[in-house]
Structures are given as structure tokens and as C-alpha cells.
Design goal:
Blueprint lengths: L1 H10 L10 H5 L19 H7 L8 E2 L10 E5 L10 E12 L32 E15 L3 H20 L1 H4 L28 H8 L21 H23 L8 E10 L2 E7 L3 E6 L2 E4 L10 H10 L8 E2 L15 E4 L8 E4 L7 E2 L1 E2 L6 E2 L9 E2 L21 E6 L10 E5 L1 H4 L4 H13 L8 H14 L1 E3 L2 E4 L3 E2 L5 E7 L1 H4 L7
Parallel strand pairs: 9-12
Antiparallel strand pairs: 1-2, 2-21, 3-4, 4-5, 5-6, 5-15, 6-16, 7-8, 7-17, 10-11, 13-14, 17-21, 18-19, 19-20
Protein name: Protein phosphatase 1H-like
Pfam families: PP2C
GO molecular function, one term: [pyruvate dehydrogenase (acetyl-transferring)]-phosphatase activity
Length: 513
Amino acid sequence: MMTRVRSAVSSILGGFMASGSSAHELRPDPPLRFPYSRPDFLALSPDEVECSADHVSRPILILKEMKLPWAAGYAEVINAGKSPLNEDQACCEVIELRRRPADPSSPSYTPLRRRSSLPSADLLEPIHSTEVKELNFHYWALFDGHGGSGAAVFTAKFLHLHIEEQLQEVLEILQNPSLQPPTCLGEENPIHHLHPSAGCLSRAASLRGATGAPGPTYTTPPRFFMEKKIKQESLVVGAIENAFKEMDAHIARERMLYSISGGCTALVVVYLLGKLYVANAGDSRALIIRGGEIIPVSSSFTPESERQRLQFLAHLQPSLLGNDFTHLEFPRRVTKKEVGKRMLHRDFTMNGWAYKTVQEEDLKFPLIFGEGKKARVLATIGITRGLGDHDLKVHDSDIAIKPFLSCSPEVKIYNLSEYAHGADDVMILATDGLWDVLSNQEVVEAVSCFLGNCDPDDQHRYTMAAQDLVMKARGVLRDQGWRIAGDRLGSGDDISVFIIPLMHGNSKQPQPS
């Protein structure tokens, strides 16, 4: 066991390894679900895609035309040799939500398509019906792949379609901002307090009736018929959360027929009805600059930040650890000579530390090991949320990693309509290749300084600011490697950045019919 763990720890610095049976290795490789590519909106030729993968010069790619929604800027650069291809992906769309006729007997009726039965075609079939344009949502997303680019490419092509499908189900509710979501679809007037005239009795009255004892007329609404008041924005949050789950299940189905390598984190921004919904599953990051103030709008999910969730799962299902790992955390590896001694530890119930008597089972490798960017789950992977990774296992074992990886995003809401935004107020989305070397403050200072020296009416300013930010994180190639300001080590990872001007969102006032 110790030999296997040491081998796994030494291998994780260069990537992630997934084991498979010898029978699987003898099978012919399945075809790629999608070939490697860069984001569609970059409009790169095959030659340009090939040139972009130069790990020595590391060219920074930017938009050829300023055609993204809200004049958003984008820039990216490949890693310094960490992986053969750029495993980051990006997507940007404006998607119309359309209302279908509600009467199934209508000749133009189109049944709601469930995303769980997505076709295998690259894109969904066009809808031919008497649909009427009602609402649209804007969508920006970054996907940071690992163990290959397959999952990131696949997710970039489908996640927005899953979100569309989930929003479609609640479209008629979203069209009426004053409508409180009904508990059951089809209820015209949601009932929050059941009146006696509805023919229902209190529990006490029901019991008295059952025994033949008369009871007084019921006049007060029973407490157990109360309903929670659900906000419309909660429906959007739920739609995004369900879309992530459907996307992960979609990858699981498709991988049975196609090669979809690795997994990916996902950072998504949806603009709908005056609000920005920021969904994050992984360690990419989003923040807002408003009037020079830093407003974080995402949280990073790492083995350290999710220690208690992971430990609790392992405590409930110890079989997930095989016979090789322990869910307990110690400040360092426990050695055999320390059995019987009192040593600091913590489990899923603890934020602090306490002493325990070391036992033989504590000699197992810890579920979470390492600190910062070197922290790993089961000595294998450095992220705890994302999509894909269905076949990832601990090196040279049958212990699956997937049960510990959550596809559920954290969704935060920024009410864009509550604020007036200037030309320099932006949202920045970036993969961890940027944040590994630049702090929030450094990023804000760099972007604010760059935009402050640009013409506010220049539509290229946000792409140029994104390019400048990527350049600051990548640095310059010197004898000691890539170096940034202060002669610090530059980022050797893939870097992708969106800069989204918020003032354009203020002009998109929601007007549902």
C-alpha cells in the first residue's frame, strides 16, 4: 500500500492518473465525442488552433471581432508544458426562452423536452412551432479541464442547453414578476392557508370525528398547511443546479460510447431579468469591480475548504476508502513508532484540533493530504467539485474518486438592477491559472489601471484589458522560466479570462410579457 501511495503522490504533480482493467486496455479506443478545439467565438482556423498550442512562445489569444454580448472581453493562453493541449474551454451565448402553447390538443403544441433524453446530435434540433419570443438569458462560462480536454470541450457545448431546458419549465412563472411560484404546477391561485371551506379538518377535529365525538367548528387555518414563500430567483437557482446535475449525467451516458477524457470545473454566469447568477463548481473565481470596490461573487472549492464534507462522507461510507485510507486528518503522516501516543487530529465534526491516542488504523494514508495547491483527495485530485471524472480511480487500485466529487455548484446572485454601473465597473471570470499567481487586489488594480487609461467609448477596451491581465499572470520567459512582476514565478497553467462590463446590463431592463 505504501509503495502505491508514494507512487501516486509523486505522479500528481504532473497530472492525474486513472487506472483501468487489463481487459479494458485491450479494447480499441472509442472515438472522440468532439475533436479538440478552442472556443467557437474565437473563430480560429485549424492552423491557428495548432499554433496556439505552442508551449514555448505561449501566444495570447484574443477576439478577432468584438462580437460577444455586452462587448465583453476575452483572452487565453496555453500552459507551459503541463499538458499537451489547452484544457481550458469557454463559451458565451445569448439564448431565447420561448413559450409553447399550453393546450396539448393544439396543432402547434410542442411538448417540453427533458434534458435527460438529450439526443446525441451536436446541437439540438430546431423547434418548429408557433413559439413566441418571450425572454432571453445571457451566458458566459469557463471550464478548466484536467486529465484531458474531453470533458471541458463536451461541457462547453452542452451545459447552456441544459440550463435552457430547465428554465423552460418555469418560463411562464418568470414571465410574471409579481407571481409567487405555485407549489404545484397548474395551480392558478397558490393556496398558502387552507380555509375550512375547502373541506379539510384539523388533526384534532379529525380525531374527534373518528371516535364519534362532536367537535367545535374549525375556524383557524391549521399550522401544518402553511407553505413557504418561494422567490422567483430561487427557481432560476434551482434550474442552474439541476442543469449541472443533468450535465454530469449526460457525460456519464456519452462516455459509454465515446471518449470523453478527464473532468472539468465549471464557472458560469447567467444574466436573466436584471440579475446575474454566478454558479461555481471548482476553483475558478469570479469577482466584481464596482466603484473600485472588490466584490467576490464565488467561492473556491478545494480539498481543504471541503474537508468536513469529504470526511463526513467517508465516515458514513467507510467502504469508499477501501482498506487504504483514513478519514481522519493529522498535521503530518503518522509513523508506526507513534502508535499508542497522543497526537493532534480532527474529524468532520471539528474546526479545531484535539489529541487522540494513535491506533494502528491511523497509519493509513489520510483522505485529504497536503496544503494549498498541493492538497489532494485520496492522493489523486486537487479539486472537489466539477463535472466528469466518472472513471477516475486512485493509482493502481479500484478505489473510485467520483463519490467524493460533487457536481453541485454554489450559486450566488448579484442584483444588477439595484446599482448604476460605470464604464470601469466589470465582472472578471478567470480559471485558477490566473489566481494562482495574482491576488484579488492585484487583479483589480491591474484592470482598473488599464481601463482608466482607455477611452470609455472604445469597445475593444475590455478585450485589451483581458489580454493585459493574462500577460501579467503569464509573465515573460527568462532563463529561470516564466517570470512576473517582482521576479516571481509566473503561471505555468492554462489561463482563461472574461471581463464583462456591467453597464451594458443596466440597459437590458427585463421586460417580460
